[in-house]
Design brief:
The protein is of the alpha/beta class and 300 residues long. The chain has 13 helices and 8 strands. An 8-stranded mixed β-sheet has the order 1-2-4-3-5-6-7-8, sandwiched between helices. Helix 11 links the parallel strand 7 and strand 8. The two termini are 24 Å apart.
């Protein structure tokens, strides 16, 4: 069945109203409903990131909702709070607006992985399972090591945090900047066609889009403090968790130890998506979908 691209007004707790754009992929009427999957994209992407896997997940009986988080795609850009706790609250408001009260499965990649972790740790009663990965989570040792010791590879963590300058330098050069990220940490270069790169570049060339994208990075230190405080006060996340990483990813070796800093060991599984580096969903869509579906089948 065809997915539908829509927009909906939400009013998150503690935040002003905003609009979120999202892809809504129904499951076939001939298939038993297995639940809802909330899919959260990364940077420099939008919900377009999940275009290849939505049909696979829907055919297995899952309704799939892939929002564009605040500031990305066609979602509101007149926002300034990009703490991942705030963005997680957006997702709860989205589920409420879509009248989805039952716990959902959450799949997050990169920035979306940070939001997915916040969602599961803050609202465990609304999350049946969570898959996240390919991000050094703020507040963990992986984040500290990558930010300090791998500064060249992770230059954008600092660059994006500089006020105003990144927006000024990148204006009019969005395609060049987007291409840099889609090329430097990719194993399967066929994953991104020129049309795909154009799609993402156009999305981030919208007025305010890059400011919002950089705002997501500018609060990493605040995110780190919030994540550490949450673990200290409430313990590690007990929601059934799958950490996903790529066979050729630079995050592969650190994935499990990072997850154990914030996730209960008896709730944790780690899987590798073959023939992929950082962009798991797009580099190997079928492999990614198969790993996720096997995990979800054990969550019923």
């Amino acid at each position: 069945m065809t997915s539908h691209y829509r927009s909906i007004a939400i009013t998150p707790q503690g935040s002003p109203p905003l609009s979120l754009a999202y892809l809504d992929q129904p499951f076939p009427s001939t298939t038993d409903h297995q639940g809802t999957i909330l899919l959260l994209h990364g940077f420099p992407q939008t919900s377009h990131q999940f275009r290849h896997i939505l049909p696979h997940l829907a055919e297995a009986g899952y309704r799939c909702v892939a929002p564009e988080y605040r500031g990305a795609g066609r979602s509101s850009k007149d926002v300034t709070d990009f703490r991942k706790s705030t963005m997680a609250a957006d997702m709860i408001a989205l589920l409420d607006a879509l009248e989805i009260p039952e716990p959902v499965h959450v799949v997050g990649h990169d920035i979306g992985g940070m939001i997915a972790y916040s969602l599961a740790s803050m609202y465990p009663e609304r999350v049946k399972s969570v898959c996240w990965g390919e991000c050094p989570l703020p507040g963990t040792q992986a984040y500290e090591v990558n930010r300090k010791e791998n500064a060249v590879d992770f230059f954008h963590f600092i660059f994006h945090s500089v006020p105003d300058l990144p927006e000024a330098l990148i204006a009019g050069k969005e395609r060049l900047y987007v291409s840099h990220f889609l090329n430097k940490i990719t194993y399967n270069f066929d994953a991104f066609s020129d049309a795909d790169i154009d799609f993402y570049a156009t999305a981030y060339a919208q007025p305010g889009a890059m400011r919002c994208a950089f705002g997501v990075y500018r609060v990493f230190e605040t995110d780190a403090a919030e994540n550490k405080k949450r673990v200290a006060e409430h313990g590690k996340c007990g929601v059934r968790t799958l950490i996903l990483t790529g066979e050729h990813s630079r995050h592969r070796d650190e994935a499990r130890e990072m997850a154990l800093e914030v996730t209960q060991e008896d709730a944790l599984a780690v899987e590798v998506v073959e023939e992929a580096s950082h962009y798991l969903v797009e580099e190997n869509p079928e492999g990614f979908a198969d790993v996720v579906l096997r995990f979800l089948a054990k969550s019923h």
